[in-house]
Amino acid sequence: MRLIEMAHEGDKEARDRLVTENMGLIWSIVRRFTGRGYDPEDLFQIGSIGLMKAIDKFDMSFEVKFSTYAVPMITGEIKRFLRDDGMIKVSRSIKEMGTRVKCVREALNFTLGREPTIEEIAGEIGASKEEVAASIEAGAEVESLYRTVNKNDENSILLIDKIEEENSAQEELLNRMVLRELLTELSDKDREIIVRRYYYNETQSQIATRLGISQVQVSRLEKKILKQMREKI
């Protein structure tokens, strides 16, 4: 608990020690996902991100052990990676670069207290800015489809949840492809509403201010657009 408290106060050594001392926990979870065609080292790196998130978000008032809190965080991070990976095929070198960039990005975010620049990430891992940018972009589109959105609203949802779909993996992949196609068919205004609402996580009120219309109008337009997208599907 003292190490976590020190990490929350910005002590990098305490945070690194927590990560080191919990490597066994990460590996125990990684072993659950062996045999799925992924390098265990890659899954370990992804699990490490989940552990760092658990360290940063752990509430000292929780009446649970840190490991009890960390396990679902680590597991969730790996599951998100397995779920999102592979929708857009990229070279192995870019994939490996993306994993390194994600880890360094998390570490710099904690150390600097802000989102690091591409230049800072590139300098940390010894790669060019172009390589870092390519690795970030390679995973950005798929991730955005399943990111929690409308966090400022009463009910948080996923964009995919707004489009009726089958549960099978093949249907899920097809719907993602169809969704991308539907977005290109929308008018500029309709597409802006959907993109701002579900990709930029803006509230209806924020969109209304940008477009110079009322929040009620945005709500009606959103429902109309989603209905049209469902009908086309």
From TrEMBL:
GO terms for molecular function: DNA binding; sigma factor activity. The keyword Repeat does not apply. It comes from the Bacteria. GO terms for biological process: DNA-templated transcription initiation; sporulation resulting in formation of a cellular spore. Residues 42-55, 203-229 form the RNA polymerase sigma-70 domain. Keywords: DNA-binding, Sigma factor, Sporulation, Transcription, Transcription regulation. SUPFAM superfamilies: Sigma2 domain of RNA polymerase sigma factors (SSF88946), Sigma3 and sigma4 domains of RNA polymerase sigma factors (SSF88659). CDD domains: Sigma70_r4 (cd06171). It holds the Pfam family Sigma70_r3. NCBIfam families: PRK05572.1, SigBFG, sigma70-ECF, spore_sigF. Sigma factors are initiation factors that promote the attachment of RNA polymerase to specific initiation sites and are then released. PANTHER family: RNA POLYMERASE SIGMA FACTOR RPO, RNA POLYMERASE SIGMA-F FACTOR. Belongs to the sigma-70 factor family. This is RNA polymerase sigma factor. It comes from Hungatella effluvii.
